[in-house]
Amino acid sequence: MQPLADLAPPIAAQPRYSAVVAIPARDEAERIGACLDALADAAAQAGPVAVLLLADRCADATVEIATAARARVPYALVVVRRVLVGSALRNAGDAGGARRAAMDAGAALLAPDGVLMTTDADTRVAPDWIARNRAAIAAGADAAAGRVTYLRADDRALPQAARRRERLERIYARLLAELRARARPDPHDPWPRHDMASGASLALTLDAYRRIGGLPRVPVGEDRALVDALRAAGARVRHCPRIRVTTSGRLDGRASAGAAATRRLRAEGGDPFCGPDLPALDDALACLAGVRMRAQARLCASALPGEIERAGALVRMLRLRSAGACRGDNPVPARSGLR
């Protein structure tokens, strides 16, 4: 068990809510205030909601700042402190374990038909974030994944070469998402959509969370593992581009192999390859065709312009095939826009 020392009334004594936002936090004193204030704006549009903040072995003022925020936010804010010792520290003392503990505690606050959401302590949700997550679930989805962008100030701090690479990756990711959506339409996840699965913006029904046994026990990549587990269980997952959050683009993240570590490596000129969520186009097409491949070579970042051109041509062809349904789509970026 992972002992949680409540700094609010015990969870068992709390009322049950129709929606709960679970947030893991580790030494986030600089950012937690903005996170909670953004959720206040979102809660004002969405009705009764609770926020469960799990302070994971914090050594700074995260807990004090969050506790003080109770006086100004329009939602029920439950703050718990996570304490790990001995084997628990070895087995669950990671970012994935912290999110699982936060989501498990949040689930305990939910009504049987409730919606469990999660975001990050360095993230600011859009004012309609809670409402749009609830709307996606009400429309028939079992889970909803939101679109994540970085704070502009953090983007500007990156070297120009790193910023250009990230821009190319975003273009390629959008093309792959559209290619998949048009080549193999999913009535529960239609175009427009994206392919992100980030812990900064996830929502699911309590039933779906319990059906898969909670958040998968992995040290990193727990967000992608959650979506994969939901799909394997037959859940309907909506990747809604209108569910939006803005997150820190910092280079000193909490997960040893998370997004911050990847950004730092790229800022230093390392990591010439894209992540596994951006396969080479041939590999992506093989997957769409149902061809099993023993191993996929990681896509080299220098190949992105060419892959974008090829993917763009395929997307344009698919758009033409369904022109009546695709009026108003944004044009595929031309080569001149990649320089």
Automatic annotation (TrEMBL):
SUPFAM superfamilies assigned: Nucleotide-diphospho-sugar transferases
InterPro entries to which the protein is assigned, alphabetical: Nucleotide-diphossugar_trans
This protein's GO CC annotations: plasma membrane
Major subcellular location class: membrane
Subcellular location per the Swiss-Prot or TrEMBL entry: Cell membrane
Coiled coil (UniProt feature): none
Key words, A-Z: Cell membrane, Glycosyltransferase, Membrane, Transferase
Gene3D superfamilies: Spore Coat Polysaccharide Biosynthesis Protein SpsA, Chain A
GO-annotated molecular function: glycosyltransferase activity
Pfam family, one: Glyco_tranf_2_3
Protein name: Glycosyl transferase family 2
